[in-house]
Write a structure and sequence with these properties.
Elements lengths: L8 H11 L19 H6 L10 H13 L3 E11 L8 E11 L4 E7 L1 H6 L8 E7 L2 E5 L1 H7 L5 E4 L1 H8 L3 H8 L3 H6 L10 E8 L2 E11 H8 L5 H11 L3 E8 L5 E9 L8 E9 L15 E3 H7 L2
Parallel strand pairs: 6-12
Antiparallel strand pairs: 1-2, 1-11, 2-3, 3-4, 4-5, 5-6, 7-8, 8-9, 9-10, 10-11
Helix pairs in contact: 1-7, 6-7, 6-11
Amino acid sequence: MRPRARLAPLAIVSLLIATAGCGSDDAAPSSSPAGDATGTAENTTASSNSTVATPEDRLAAAPAATTAAGTARSTFTATVVDVNGAGSGAVTFGGEGEIDFENQQASSRSDLGELLRQAGVDDVDGELESVVDGAVSYVRSPFFATMVGAPTPWIRIDPAALESATGMDMTQLSGLTSNDPNTQLAFLAGVVEGSVEEAGAGEVRGTPTTRLRAMVDLRKAAEDTGAVTDPQAFEQFVASLGDGELAVEIDLDDDDRVRQLAYEHRLPAGGGGGHQRIELQYFDFGADVAISIPPDDQVTDLADLFGAGE
């Protein structure tokens, strides 16, 4: 019988932040040709400017080009390995969601059942629904609500408030691992000069793409975007990941919009350790999306629950 591991509370918090803004486990696989309802129209209106731009120029333009449509739909695939100790194995799960780039909001659905079972937590409801509103996430998870003793369906995760309650720098953790689309695209500001290379033609959900590879300097990204609130804590966080650089792979369409973004990184030891790989896809640009923030009477603040347990 496989030994039962116990997933530390902060490891669960880390993973909930990491999966906020994602979705259900029936998402299309990476580079799938299926499912982009607007792909034909988008390809028809594609700009030819990308044929004369350098890979560096195209990547620099990509975040603004991606968010210019205002909204999009997304899918993701995440593979988490060895959380809470070596030998716990790899778990892959995925999902789908909606994005409002302009208002920095996203909504999602997901199922973390297999991830929890891999961590030794059996016979649980792994359903996860989340809403991202700027830096704050709202999570509806029956398992997590039971674990932390939340009396409401929704739990509010404010990384800055959690830092005060737990002593762990959750703000910097969420800056890397959150699937909030604006955060993910913003760290492309840290692309290392001279590291961008073209890796040939690709295809994501039926849309032809150009695949680029680059290195991202997390310190440079944080400096350029003004995302760091505590430089010393952020430096400790970056050190926990290695040398502070991430290898990223980006698929751009002919309008220089990001169609797929993939990278992997270590998870900080304070959140359970291990590492994860994330692949995000963007499609249906300009779609009608409706993202609702849970009402206050249905929400418990996670920082309050941690504070109450002290």
